[in-house]
């Protein structure tokens, strides 16, 4: 009855999953009556949001993950189809959106140093990519960036700030020539880089005296694959590459974006820097929301130029790209307003249909 996450008949649409964070100590302390504001019905892929004490509204997503869903399952459902299409030469994006503290970084960036089962989407994606390319003939390059107050900072070299975005006027391809790109040797190499990036992100947050994420973090993975020329089909991939010529190089890009907290920071009467930051976060998330609406409504003009976030996503969101969005929520009714706005954002994103095209040189 319901479409599967990767239903081929519907392959261009943005896939949206919702993940509920387990109840934490703060929820337990403050919710005396354990009044959850959501109820999940994973078998129906539905989420019921309580409107008030007597009524609730039900929403359908492509997938609904309860608080016990494993990192492996979340990866396999949300990100693996995107990674597979990136390996076939398409662009792809995986984004996480939600209030601070609801598990965006847990879902995407978890290193799982002591327990590989805890690894998040970034590590699992790179593991799949490295397992499926030929290191001798293909290249995988990563950059790790943070967008803070409309300035792009390199998380692999934090002294590099204000990195400009380059958009190829002919192809519309987005690149960041000023950012460090590291050619990966293996998964271990990636784990080292991610650890450096996370430490720099943490240091930047500490400097801002905050545990909340006021920046968007984006891992950019550029893949160039040599597609072998026409040789007999019954020889191995390695042999094909060695024996064939290389008439085709396929370029594709995977973006994994940990968006800034979706809460409206200005509601508590912030001042000074906090207010400035709130304005920038609101600007980028509002412009992302506008692009999502415009794409969902099939508008001829998508307002990507309004913020750096949407400029960065230009060739990854809409156009020739595959996109999965995971929205993260907490169970507590204390955050009813934020949870509602996160769910509405996810519902709008479900309407976007991307045009999936192959790019070849
Ligand atoms: P965000 O990036 O949205 O601000 P985090 O990923 O930092 O949130 O998560 C906040 C806290 O909740 C962290 O301590 C994290 O380990 C924990 N957490 C989040 N999601 C889960 C989950 N699905 N299972 C267990 N712990 C989680």
TrEMBL record:
All copies of domain Kinesin motor, residue ranges: 13-352
Residues that, per the record, bind ATP: 98-105
Compartments it resides in: Cytoplasm, Cytoskeleton
The family this protein is said to belong to: Belongs to the TRAFAC class myosin-kinesin ATPase superfamily. Kinesin family. Ungrouped subfamily.
Protein name (record): Kinesin-like protein KIN-UC isoform X4
Organism: Gossypium hirsutum
Residues of the full protein shown: 66 to 426 of 1037
């Amino acid at each position: 009855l319901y479409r599967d996450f990767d239903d081929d008949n519907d392959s261009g649409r943005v896939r949206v999953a919702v993940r509920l964070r387990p109840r934490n100590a703060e929820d337990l302390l403050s919710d005396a009556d354990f009044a959850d504001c959501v109820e999940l019905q994973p078998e129906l892929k539905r989420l019921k949001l309580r409107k008030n004490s007597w009524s609730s509204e039900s929403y359908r997503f492509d997938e609904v993950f309860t608080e016990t869903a494993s990192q492996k399952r979340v990866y396999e459902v949300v990100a693996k189809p995107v990674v597979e299409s990136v390996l076939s030469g398409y662009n792809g994006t995986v984004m996480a959106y939600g209030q601070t503290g609801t598990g965006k970084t847990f879902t995407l960036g978890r290193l799982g140093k002591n327990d590989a089962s805890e690894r998040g989407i970034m590590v699992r994606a790179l593991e799949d990519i490295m397992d499926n390319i030929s290191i001798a003939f293909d290249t995988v390059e990563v950059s790790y960036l943070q967008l803070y107050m409309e300035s792009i900072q390199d998380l692999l070299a934090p002294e590099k700030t204000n990195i400009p975005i380059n958009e190829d006027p002919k192809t519309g391809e987005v690149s960041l020539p000023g950012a460090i790109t590291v050619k990966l040797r293996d998964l271990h190499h990636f784990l080292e880089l991610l650890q450096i990036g996370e430490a720099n992100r943490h240091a930047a947050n500490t400097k801002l005296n905050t545990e909340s994420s006021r920046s968007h973090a984006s891992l950019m993975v550029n893949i160039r694959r040599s597609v072998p020329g026409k040789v007999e089909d019954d020889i191995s991939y390695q042999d094909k590459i060695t024996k064939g010529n290389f008439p085709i190089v396929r370029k594709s890009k995977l973006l994994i974006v940990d968006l800034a907290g979706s809460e409206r920071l200005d509601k508590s009467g912030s001042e000074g820097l906090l207010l400035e930051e709130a304005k920038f976060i609101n600007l980028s998330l509002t412009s992302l929301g506008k692009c999502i609406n415009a794409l969902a409504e099939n508008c001829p003009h998508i307002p990507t130029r309004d913020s750096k976030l949407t400029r960065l996503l230009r060739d990854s969101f809409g156009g020739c790209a595959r996109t999965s969005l995971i929205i993260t929520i907490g169970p507590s009714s204390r955050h009813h307003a934020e949870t509602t706005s996160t769910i509405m954002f996810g519902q709008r994103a479900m309407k976007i249909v991307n045009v999936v095209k192959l790019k070849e040189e």
